[in-house]
Structure formats: structure tokens, C-alpha cells
């Protein structure tokens, strides 16, 4: 198909298609005459993947490009792609707080990881984010929220196991690799969305109870 | 204290402090002489809150400013702030996919909400994000991931209840309002971080099992 049809079928404007091609995120079409380039079904799928990562998953163009380069590299595995996808979705901010507060938060996270019997490297991108969250809770005197971390951890553990089990059912390696990426990026978006919905429900119930009680 | 000390004690550079003041996110200090402005302890706390929302929580300056304006408005309540914080953290992307696919995803989300007996408005910012995630899963043939949504929903429901219970213990209304914001923004960051850690653990265990098995 021509670029116009590719744009129509995916809803992605022609200038964006050209931009993704220049950035190396979308393979170029096949030039079949001096002024005609042909695109295949695989281009449709790739554009959908780009949109899922950037628009639904909230990744920056740079982060999405990194993830796609990982998917395209010949030796990629589902476990390896999980690491690439994790690094791409994790924002690492500058360190804040006093050294003492930071060390205390480091210890608390290490203990949490030990309590849940998790075998992970401290370089895991989630580790550092979690330390920052703990520092922020301490700095802002929200100790009540700290008590919730074990609940979050329990939920995260059970979801990770379910995700990996779902994953085993996927037949091809390519689909497994893409699934590892989408499970991470879209899984975060799904979980955040469901938290919004559940929070409204709980908040409404409590408010109604207090009004009738 | 002077602006230099405020910068030193918070780790926020002087130009950033001035920027936050111009944006209305930080109240101006008190001018005590033609060339001296005095800042209070409350400015330290506000700067920590700004940094928690933007650096740890990943909010844009505009979104953080909106949340802070909500906190500062006289009539704000914890339930109301939850809505403001939710809207700020929710990215709404353009619609994609065919109408048919969109309607199908809408129905699936409505059924999921019904299954979990959630009383929420369809305008809830999570609702639309979730529809987009479902469309993306369908478009990319990741049906296995769809099966996980009920697990995510179950976890989100139990976490929302725990969050609200933690919240009830907070003595002052001001702290409750700030807690609603931080519970939403930093709670998302904490959950995503813990998913990274748990995923690495599960992925490693499975790989080790397959190597020794």
C-alpha cells in the first residue's frame, strides 16, 4: 500500500509516519518506482506498537525508540527485553534529602525486598524509584503511606507471577518479546487506570456512609 | 531565612525557587527590607511537595501547579482533591482504532467495572485510559494480557481500600488533603517500582528453573 493508505488504516498522520521512519523506529517502505514507496502489513503493526508505547503507555519518543531497537536486535530474549522495557519506563530523578534520610530509606527498601524474599539486583530500576518514594514520604511526614508499601509489594508479587504465567502461553518468541514490553508498559497504564477507578469507588462509599451515618 | 539558605536546606537551586514562585506554585517570601526577602519553614515543606510531585511522581510543571492550586483553594476536601490529583496524573491520548474495536473495548471495561461492583462515573479518568489499553491489547493481538485485567482490578480494589483506611488515621484535614494527592501520585510510582522488582524476581526464578530443569 502507499503511505496515504497506511496513514488512513492506522490513523497516524503522514508527517508522523515520516518522522518515525527518520528516527529509525519504523523500517522504510520499499521503493518500487522513482516516486512510489510501498508499505506492508508489518508497517501497520509496527505503527500500532509505536502508538501503544507512546500514547497509551506514556513513553517518550526516545524511550520508545530504545525499546523498539531492543525488539529488533537479533539476540533479544523475553527476559532481556523485560530489562530494556523496565529501564525505559523508569524515570530516574536527582537525589534529594539528607544523606541520613537517604540511607534510612535504602535500608527500609532492602528490608522490604528481604521480607518478600525477592532475589533482585540493587540496580533494578524500580529499587531507586522506591527509595525516592520512601524519602518523599518521610520528608512530607506521610508515615501512614509507608505502612502501605507491604500491601503494594504483595500485590506486585502476585501480579508478576500471573503476568509470567500468561506469558508462557504465548507461542512464538517474537510475540513473547513484544508481550514482555507491552506487559510492562501497558500493564503500568492499566494498573494506574484501575487504581483511579477503585479509588473513586472506595472514596464515594466512605463519603456516602458518613453522610447517612 | 534568606533564599540562599532555603536553597541549601532543600537542595532546590535558587533559579528554580524563583521559577516556582513566578508560576504561583510557591508563595512569595516576605519582603523585610528593600533588598531582603524572608522565607519560612512552610516554604521548605512546599518545595519538598513540589519536588515529590514532579521528580518522584513524574507530574509535569503544569499538572503539579494545578494540583497545588487545588490544595490551596479554601473549600478543598480529601474526596475533591482525589479527583483533582487523578485528573492531573491521567494522560488522555487521542482515540485510535476502529469505531467497532472502540465500542467493543468500552463494553469490556463496563463489564469489568460491573464484575467488581464498582460505583464510578464513566468520566473517571481511569476509565478512558483503560479503554485505550484494551484497544491496544486487541490491536496487537495480546489477548493473553487481557485475561490479567481482573487480577489487576482485584489488586487495585484491595489497595484502594487499604489506602483509604490509612488515610482515616491522619489527624488534620490539611494532612488528609495532601495525603490524597501523595497517595495517588507517589502510590502510582511506588506500585510501578515494586512491579519492576517483582517482575525481575519472577523472571529470574523462571529462567533458573528452565536452566536446571
TrEMBL record, chains A, B:
InterPro entries recorded: DNA-bd_dom_put_sf, MerR-type_HTH_dom, MerR_fam
Residue intervals of the HTH merR-type domain: 1-70
Cross-referenced PROSITE patterns: HTH_MERR_2
Superkingdom per UniProt: Bacteria
Key word Endoplasmic reticulum present: no
The UniProt record lists the keyword DNA-binding: yes
GO molecular function: DNA binding; DNA-binding transcription factor activity
Keywords from the UniProt entry: DNA-binding
PANTHER family linked to this entry: HTH-TYPE TRANSCRIPTIONAL REGULATOR ADHR, REDOX-CYCLING DRUG-SENSING TRANSCRIPTIONAL ACTIVATOR SOXR
Protein name listed in UniProt: MerR family transcriptional regulator
Organism: Streptomyces angustmyceticus
Amino acid at each position: 500500500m502507499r503511505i496515504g493508505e497506511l496513514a488512513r488504516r492506522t490513523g497516524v498522520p503522514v508527517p508522523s509516519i515520516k518522522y518515525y521512519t527518520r528516527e529509525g523506529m519504523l523500517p522504510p517502505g520499499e521503493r518500487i518506482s522513482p516516486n512510489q514507496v510501498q508499505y506492508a502489513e508489518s508497517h501497520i503493526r509496527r505503527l500500532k506498537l509505536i502508538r501503544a508505547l507512546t500514547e497509551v503507555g506514556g513513553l517518550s519518543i526516545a524511550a520508545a525508540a530504545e525499546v523498539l531497537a531492543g525488539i529488533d536486535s537479533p539476540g533479544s530474549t523475553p527476559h532481556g527485553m523485560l530489562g530494556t522495557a523496565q529501564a525505559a519506563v523508569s524515570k530516574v530523578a536527582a537525589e534529594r534529602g539528607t544523606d541520613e534520610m537517604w540511607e534510612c530509606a535504602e535500608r527500609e527498601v532492602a528490608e522490604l525486598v528481604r521480607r518478600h524474599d525477592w532475589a533482585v539486583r540493587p540496580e533494578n530500576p524500580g529499587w531507586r524509584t522506591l527509595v525516592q518514594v520512601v524519602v518523599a514520604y518521610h520528608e512530607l511526614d506521610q508515615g501512614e503511606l509507608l505502612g502501605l508499601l507491604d500491601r503494594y509489594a504483595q500485590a506486585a508479587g502476585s501480579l508478576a507471577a500471573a503476568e509470567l504465567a500468561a506469558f508462557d502461553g504465548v507461542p512464538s518468541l517474537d510475540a513473547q518479546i513484544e508481550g514482555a514490553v507491552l506487559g510492562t508498559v501497558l500493564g503500568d497504564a492499566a494498573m494506574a487506570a484501575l487504581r483511579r477507578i477503585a479509588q473513586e469507588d472506595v472514596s464515594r462509599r466512605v463519603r456516602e456512609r458518613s453522610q447517612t451515618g
